[in-house]
Design goal:
mainly alpha; Tetracycline Repressor, domain 2; 204 residues; 0% strand
């Protein structure tokens, strides 16, 4: 189920995400977005300057929803690392339920998107990296590689892209234990990361 509403702007954003995944950016046009949304070009022009503005709004929408999903998953009654895997679970479920937005965020924005869309994507990447970097605050490891969070994020995104390109967005939530392991092993070591991965498997 989409996280967007049914107002004209949201319908245009959803149509832009879907068409970006299907056609790529070069083949995209405001008229096609409006038609896909069941609206007129005049309505498109009321909400967006051009197709880049609309696609940027779609990229921003999925980024904000990721932040919202992580926030909803947080509980003060759990450890920080348990909150990590509940947050990861929310993100994977969000992407599985919204595959065109997942494609927009993980594939399109890296390979085909115009500058404004890439900037939003990179800002989201930096935000997630900073969140992961906080893992050192809850780690007993004496060694803290500066690029650990970046490596975690890169590895996780590579797996997401692989599943999306293969048409298996539905499978992402099933990979929760793998993602939990990827996210925690640099900070906690193999034994604790495996324990958390087993816990993640138990909540599937």
């Amino acid at each position: 189920m989409s996280f967007l509403g049914d107002d004209p702007r949201d319908r245009l954003i959803a149509a832009a995400a879907a068409l970006s995944a299907e056609r790529g950016y070069d083949e995209l046009a405001g008229e096609a977005i409006a038609t896909r949304a069941g609206l007129t070009v005049a309505v498109f022009d009321q909400h967006f300057e051009d197709k880049e503005d609309c696609v940027a709004a779609a990229e921003n929408a999925i980024l904000l929803e990721v932040v919202s999903a992580v926030s909803r998953s947080y509980s003060a009654d759990r450890s920080e690392w348990e909150n990590v895997f509940h947050g990861v679970k929310e993100i994977l479920e969000l992407m599985a339920a919204n595959p065109t937005f997942a494609y927009l965020g993980y594939v399109f924005s890296r390979q085909m998107a115009p500058g404004s869309v890439r900037e939003i994507n990179e800002a989201g990447h930096r935000m997630l990296e900073a969140m992961l970097q906080r893992g050192w605050d809850y780690s007993d490891s004496p060694h803290q590689p500066a690029c650990a969070a970046l490596g975690v994020l890169g590895g996780a995104q590579a797996v997401v892209r692989r599943e999306l390109v293969a048409g298996r967005a539905w499978r992402l939530p099933q990979l929760l234990p793998d993602f939990v392991y990827i996210a925690t092993v640099p900070f906690l070591g193999q034994e604790q990361a495996q324990r958390l991965a087993r816990e993640a498997a138990s909540i599937l």
